[in-house]
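[Solved] Which block belongs to which protein?

Original post:
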Amino acid sequence: QVQLQESGPGLVKPSQTLSLTCTVSGGSITTNNYYWSWIRQPPGKGLEWIGMIGYSGSTYYSPSLKSHTSISRDTSKNQFTLQLNSVTPEDTAVYYCVSQVAGGDFGSWGQGTQVIVSS
């Protein structure tokens, strides 16, 4: 069973860059047909898919967030990273990293990490 763990700062100032890392264990992020997503949940709102990186390194982003989002990976560490540029208080949320097999539902979830954007 794949396990995921998010890490990163809990507090970011407006206009700065948010960077979160997901460390994967129990499986490789280069395993064929696996995709690795970032999902967030703002307070009082539903889940929002941010984007994902595939087993080959291809990336896909939510159209509403694409302009200031970047997802990358470090295969040597079995990690993938979310960067969200020019954050605003509206980016305050619990951020999750999630695994998914191509064509399937979301599989394993990290425990989530709270990020607050505030000066």
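(Second protein starts here: sequence line, then its structure tokens.)
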Amino acid sequence: QVQLVESGGGLVQPGGSLRLSCTASGRIFMIYAMGWYRQAPGKQRELVASITSSGMTNYADSVKGRFTISRDYAKNTVFLRMNSLKPEDTADYYCNADSQPDRGTRNHYWGQGTQVTVSS
């Protein structure tokens, strides 16, 4: 199994910044991609940003130019730097890893989520 633990959420004023972190642990054979999703109250979970094992990134249109995803491959950690935050960025943010455990099958794993609130 693969476990994901997120950190870095909190309350921030509009225009502010936050950095989310997510570390994968367990008997990991390979992590193919990692990403961040978010879910606001009453809305479906949506992709925010993702990064592959080769460093290719993908962003939701709503966060392009404001958010940056990066990875520390040695530490199985993914970061999401969020700048110029808006109230509409308020949501629970979930880490996702497309990963294969040692002697296991490839699957998508999820963290428990971290809350981000953008409000004055």
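Accepted answer:
You had them paired correctly. Confirming on the second one: The mean pLDDT is 96.
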